[in-house]
Amino acid sequence: MSTNGRILSVNNLSVSFVRWGQEVQALQSVSFEVTKGEWLILVGPNGSGKSTLLNVLSARLDPNQGEIQLNGRTIGDMSAQDMAENAFYVHQNPLLSAAPTLTLYENLLVSDIHSHHRSEKKAQLLEKYTALLEPLGLSGRMKQPAKTLSGGERMLLGLTIARLRPGSLILLDEPFASLDPGKLELCLKSISDLNALGKTIIQVSHDPEVATTLGTRTLVLNQGQLSLDVSGTKRSTIDIQAHWYTTTEKSSVHV
Predict the structure, then answer these.
(1) Does residue 209 fall inside a structural domain?
(2) DSSP E strands: which ranges in the chain?
(3) How far are the Cα atoms of 42, 46, 251, 254 from residue 248, in angstroms, in the given order?
(4) How far apart are CA 167 and CA 199, in angstroms?
């Protein structure tokens, strides 16, 4: 269980690896906490450590230093099943968030853990999944394999799966990348709905406008360091871009 509403605690996190014979410090002493129901926007230049941080938070990568607690439990001590029950990662490549050869119905069915416990009948499930997919324009594609969807449609499917998964933390890696305006609007609505349902969201973006207009809080990573942590109406494009583009060795700024 989370403590005092805290769902995630990241303490002194560092990650390094060797690339082409050189050591790369991907994350350096990163610390922050996340309260249940927050919607964080994580921004920064290419190579700043955003994807590395998501990989560590989802237990796909072990840190060299530091500790992460999710719902009061240390991630390093959690099994793959434990992680699946507490967090869900929607990848930038949306096929990684679904089973490509399964149909849309089958993907939703295997993700819908609660329906297994309730022993819902197929007619009930079809009605429920149709209601979820209809606003996305996918209700008539229930028998279609996920791999045959377009990139934007796969992202919408991944977000629908996140809605059905039991995990309270949703990690989103560039969900708006390469989307046309129509699919972008649908994805934004899906993410907003996830947050309204009580899901805690950490969303990676390269868009400064997204960093100030979406979510409840913005974190800026620069050269593997957390350089800015700002919430609500205090977020400004000028401040975010200053920490985004400026090389700095100073400690993070919390506003």
Answers:
(1) yes
(2) 6-19, 22-35, 39-43, 65-70, 73-74, 87-90, 169-173, 200-204, 217-222, 225-231, 253-254
(3) 18, 15, 8, 15
(4) 8
Residue 1 has a pLDDT of 42
CATH number of the domain that 230 lies in?
A: 3.40.50.300
Domain of residue 218, residue span: 6-254
Mean pLDDT by 10 residues, the chain (255 residues): 78 89 88 96 90 94 94 94 94 83 94 74 90 95 94 93 94 90 94 96 90 92 92 83 63 50
Specify the number of domains making up the chain: 1
How far from the centroid of its chain's Cα atoms is residue 216's Cα?
A: 14
The pairs formed by 16-20 with CB atoms below 8 angstroms and a separation of 24 or more are 16/64
Q: Around Cβ 121, how many Cβ atoms within 10 Å? A: 10
Tokens of 230: 């700002």
**Could you give the angle at the alpha carbon of 50 between the alpha carbons of 63 and 238, nearest 5°?**
135
Q: What would the two tokens of residue 105 be?
A: 């119905």
Would you say residue 1 lies in a domain?
A: no
Can you say how many angstroms the Cα of residue 192 is from the centroid of all Cα atoms in its chain? 13
Tell me the pTM. Answer: 0.90
Q: Which two tokens stand for residue 197?
A: 């349902």
CA-CA-CA-CA torsion for 37, 170, 190, 238, nearest 10 degrees? 70
* Per-residue pLDDT at 239: 81
What integer pLDDT is reported at residue 45 of this predicted model? 87
